[in-house]
Amino acid sequence: MIIAMPPLVRTDVSKQRRLPPPPEPELDDAALFRQAVGPIRALPAQDDLARSSRPPPEPEARLSQADERQVLAELLSDDIALVGLSSGEVLAHLQDGYPPKLLRQLRRGQFVVEAELDLHHLRVPEARALLSRFLADCRRDRHRCVRIVHGKARSSESGSVIKAMTDRVLRQRADVIGYTSARPQDGGTGAVIALLQAPNR
Question: Per-residue confidence at 176, pLDDT binned at 50, 70, 90?
């Protein structure tokens, strides 16, 4: 007995369904950047020519605008109302907010005097201008303790006008913490020792 077999069906391989290719691995940002830029070459290190060829500017030694205004105000102040102080009168003043021991330390000479000014034999306008400039220069140079010789004017019946002017100028200046008449060996009542504020950095 002969069994009939079903006819074979040929399939076209070209028409078979193709699978999509596997996805490529994702690259991070750094890898993508290197892939886009390509190979790179490091440049040799060089100095900053603009910085090395330009020297830093020299600091200008000048008064601040506040000091200049204060000097000008003192130069324009009226000296007619000044009354001379006696040669033996002790001067002393301390700004509010500072401990009284500062004056005691000044009287005892516990601060090192860093600068000195002698106002002997000067007229009041000249002495006042010189004193104002001296105090401003001391702050600029960071001098804290100074001695100012104003004299005693023993030969004057009206007392020492230079002494009275020194007392008024020091009392009015905000950068003078306090002052007191000097010890006998440092001039006594003919001089004052003043303590100045530290300048702003």
Answer: very high
Please tell me what DSSP assigns to residue 47: -
CATH number at 91-196: 3.30.1370.110
This prediction's pTM: 0.59
- Strands of 145-149's sheet, edge to edge? 92-94, 176-181, 191-196, 145-149, 115-118
DSSP 197: P
Task: Kindly give the pairing relationship between strand 145-149 and strand 115-118.
Answer: parallel
Closest CA to 177 of 161, 200, 201, 193: 193
Model confidence at 178: pLDDT above 90? yes
Between residues 76 and 116, which one has the greater pLDDT?
116
Query: In whole angstroms, how far apart are CA 65 and each of 121, 131, 163?
Result: 30, 18, 28
